[in-house]
Amino acid sequence: MSESSEKDIKNQVIERTIFFLVPVVLLIIWQILGNAGIINATIMPTPSSIFKTFLDLLKSGDLAEDLGASMGRVLIGFFFGTLAGLLFGIVTGLYPKINKAVAAIFGILRPIPMIGLVPLMILWFGIGEKSKIIVIAVGTFWSVLINTQEGIFNVNDKLIEVAQLLGKNKITVLTKIIFPAAIPSIFTGIRLGVGNAWKSVVAAEMLAATKGVGHMIEYARELAQPEKLFVGLLSIGIIGLVIDAIIMTIQKKLFVWE
Question: What kind and span of H or E run contains 169?
């Protein structure tokens, strides 16, 4: 084994150790401060009490039911939001005139937070699943749209010029040059879209739902059950981390040159 390979392996071991060690150390400090009464347990419960609540919710099936409801909504909304973001991103990225025509509309709509759209969606579509899925789709849409546009905008013009000089048709230029160059940026948009989808579903469920992680968090707040509230928040964070890791792994496998 070469010296550079050994060094790379050592660096990977160090990075993974730090990745797992830092959260463990923080949890230990948190537990110690909680046991000592330095942290108010009524608003900041200890990791051990949160873990006990997690096990209780897992055994009762309540956590699985709420997570299942949220994940179902996220999957559907994320799919439609990603599809719409890709379509609009490709069209506006390839055709500058269309991009300029819709720039003002997109510029006004994009900063509106998802929590602000929930009442409007309920007014238009009721408190059923449709309104929640649309909110999730909109939350996903913007990150996919913007990154798809940027990926297309940043394609090297010289490569396109060379292809045109060689007599390549538009389909070939799109499939062999523009899309491959834009795909890494598109994957970044998809990664961001997953996070936005979870933020959106929590916002929607906190206002209008009888099941879901967002409903669980809001209900725990009303009943002053901080342990349950933290279980909901941490469940979302862990699921988001796992999904993000899966997307990153797929991206690395597909785009080795990156």
Answer: none
DSSP string for 17-67? HHHHHHHHHHHHHHHHHHHTTSS-TTTS--HHHHHHHHHHHHHHTHHHHHH
Tell me the per-residue pLDDT of 237-248, one tens digit each, with 9 for 90 and over.
Answer: 888 888 888 888
Contact 200, 114 (CB under 8 A): yes
In 3-state terms, what secondary structure has residue 202?
helix
Prediction pTM value: 0.78
- The pair of structure tokens assigned to 240 is 């988001």
- Write out the two tokens for 106: 């997109």
Q: In whole numbers, what is the pLDDT of the chain averaged over residues?
A: 82
Residue 48 near residue 56, CB atoms below 8 Å: no
Give CA–CA dist 186/193, Å, rounded.
Answer: 10
Q: In 3D, which of 114, 76, 123, 81 has the Cα closest to residue 204?
A: 114
d(CA 179, CA 110): 25
Could you give the CA distance from residue 191 to residue 246 in angstroms, rounded to a whole number?
10
